[in-house]
């Protein structure tokens, strides 16, 4: 029996939770990571070096690595705010940027780093060149750049991506399309709908591969709504947005958390972009996707609400064993 092939698509902070638990299973993992981040350290490095932003890739690399905690500390170490040009950069971002320059691309840098850090599985940036995310808001305003989109008040109608440094059409990284087509399962999320998941899907070849793949396509719905992105969205609205962006339904299964986040638990200061819990609309979900799995996937830690990777992966493994 060959191992099941699972491809996980999204942004670094969201999907890392799932990847960290998934690598303990006997499956063949590919992570496809968004490259539309233009804020913070990633944004600065991307601007200075015209390279795909390293932050999301760094988080995924660590989630899939079996290296000792000390290495992780080194990689995540962030220079102090008064460190001049180094201020605020995590050491791992500089390592990725340096190796990308040495190897000629972020794609090659990730292939070398996956060996170096003993990662379980493959990691590909969704595109080999930096992308700019554009959001068209419901009032018709258009805003470019992920960090600017987050600050703009109003509801997003749709997003699209462009190559940052020229007018050519965004292309998927090599091997990404094939990985999606060869997968037994493709997992989207968890993560910000408009800024972590959709930037990958709006690369035309990736969107097309998702429509064509025979893989079971699973969407892990967010636990909390996000300010300016998904305010007051139900789980069904998240799915509707994904389907609208690709022009047709393509998700087979949605994982929904039904555990309640205690009212006073969330630290609003720390997680100010998260507003309220995503509400459920099971009738609308059932009309859009063949299968809905609702269970307790909640992990409360550090005053935030997250997915419990092990509980999610338990459901994912059940799904892979039922397949055909």
UniProtKB/TrEMBL annotation:
Mind naming one GO cellular-component term on file for this protein?
A: cytoplasm
User: What does the record give as the function of this protein?
Assistant: Required for morphogenesis under gluconeogenic growth conditions.
Question: What protein is this chain from?
Answer: Putative gluconeogenesis factor
What processes does the entry annotate via GO biological process terms?
A: regulation of cell shape
Taxonomic path: Bacteria, Bacillati, Bacillota, Bacilli, Lactobacillales
By its UniProt entry, which Gene3D superfamilies does this protein fall under? CofD-like domains
- Keyword terms: Cytoplasm
| Gene Ontology molecular function: any one | LPPG:FO 2-phospho-L-lactate transferase activity
- UniProt source species: Streptococcus danieliae
Q: Name one Pfam family in it.
A: CofD
Principal subcellular localization: cytoplasm
Q: Where in the cell is it found?
A: Cytoplasm
Q: Which family does it belong to?
A: Belongs to the gluconeogenesis factor family.
